Amino acid sequence: MDYKKYIAQKIKVEGVSEDEVYSSIALPPNPEMGDYALPCFKFAKVLRKSPAIIAQSLAAEYPADDVIEKAEAVNGYVNFTINKLALARETIDEALSQGEKYGSSDIGGGRTVCIDYSSVNIAKPFHIGHLSTTAIGSALYKIFNFLGFKAVGINHLGDYGTQFGKLICAYKHWGNRDEVEKGGIHAINDLYVRFNSEATEEMEHEAREYFRLIESGDKEANELFDWFKELTLKYVKGIYQKLNVQFDSYAGERFYTDKMQPVIDELREKGLLKESEGAQIVDLEPYGMPPCLILRSDGASLYATRDLAAAIYRKKTYDFYKCLYVVAYQQNLHFKQVFKVLEIMGREWAKDLVHVAYGMVSLEDGAMSTRKGKVVWLEDVINRCVEKAYGIISEKNPELENKQDVAQKVGIGAVIFGALYNNKIKDIVFSYDKVLSFEGETSVYVQYTCARANSVISKGGVPASYAVGELLPQEAEVVKAIAAFPQAVQDAAEKYEPSIVARYAVDLAQKFNKFYFDCKILTAEGDKKNFRLALTSAALTALRNALTLLGIGVPEQM
């Protein structure tokens, strides 16, 4: 049950809609205050009464029933306490009956949400710096689909720019087709690094010419570029498969080559395009921003030009409800400029464009440079995590079957969770030891909790029926945590913040483990045993669904 909605339907505030009441209801900071709280401060202006008087009136008028045990006014809040036995029965029944759909909903109503994420560069390595955009975007893709939206995953490939001229030049001078075919992305990257360290002025000129040939449709130059692209996508799709990431479109920058001119023409027709030092700009000074550069003085397009064309294309193609750009916070100004240009072009849907900014990821020994060849490949990070996970699992449970499969789920899960647990805007220093810890706030801890719950169920089974009696505090806490899952998923979507689901999973795991250690399950008797087995199965359902939304596998044993 959506308890917030249940409460909102029974609260009547003159001049305030049910939706406004619903959005105001929150969880109290202290569980002893109640299960939900309605702050009345924003109603004071409408009703011309103090928040405390409003709260007292709403609490007094709230109709008593079997669902809400108590409505109490405290310092301008109405605190609601749910009937614990009714909550336990309903929550467990929902989790057990809905299974992998528990926590899902149809609030999306089939509306389309475009999500631009990962956006790897052709012929460049898929490195640790791509982890956050890939993990966050993939989790949002799964979350929005889970809530009844139609998510469209877009990999806006970096496949346009002078670096491809450099790559062709490097290949022409030093490359061998068989060696590149065999070495794939690594061989391509070696050529790119070598060009940046050894290229002469004459080779730099050649590189610019090769890029011009790509743009002008030269057959040989484009065949080479397409080959580099094919080798890159073959490699990155293998990484995506490991990370449980999927896309519906790989339309990159190059795709919009023939779609930019209509945008430029429209800007010019509307008098928005101005010349500045030979370049073409849109003046954004009235909006407190530097100008948005549309064309360089040599007539070349820029990121903004292509992003404008891409946004217009996506709206026309998908008629999106929202279009998200999961891109690092360093691009804050860029997206503000692009969104503002679309707005002053008259695109009212510009308000539906969202920059989902995130912090940077680095290993404990620092950052990376593709150009100099100092780069940490994401593939190496994944492999090292899986290898270390295998060693830890072998030590803890040497008799475990399918250790390699479990190590894959644990190691890869640790990589993903490491990027998702903290608020997305924070910079992350990735630590192998930290993400692979069986204790603390890690995916390994949650996975191990799932294995523990699964072991209980495999021995005791899921009862055909159960009775809810007086709840111990440990049992009540697990019930409340399971019941909070649907709201956690919705909050994650509304705030574009998968860490809400990650933190939820850790919180439920902690509460389940306290229940597991403090309360007998398999040795309990009668109704109490059946109830605890049902509660264990419901907790496992919520934990498994939370990890699945993050793209993390759940081993049955560990």
Describe the model.
This protein is an alpha/beta fold and 558 residues long. The protein folds into three domains: 3-82, Arginyl tRNA synthetase N-terminal domain (Gyrase A, domain 2), CATH 3.30.1360.70; 112-270 and 302-363, Rossmann fold (3-Layer(aba) Sandwich); 378-424 and 434-550, Isoleucyl-tRNA Synthetase, Domain 1, CATH 1.10.730. It has helices at residues 3-10, 18-24, 44-47, 51-61, 84-98, 131-146, 163-174, 177-198, 201-215, 219-243, 260-269, 303-318, 332-344, 378-396, 403-420, 432-435, 443-460, 473-483, 485-494, 499-518, 526-550, and strands at 36-39, 68-74, 77-82, 112-116, 150-154, 273-276, 279-282, 292-295, 322-328, 353-358, 361-363, 428-430. Helix 17 packs antiparallel against helix 21 (526-550). It starts with a helix and ends in an 8-residue tail after the last helix.
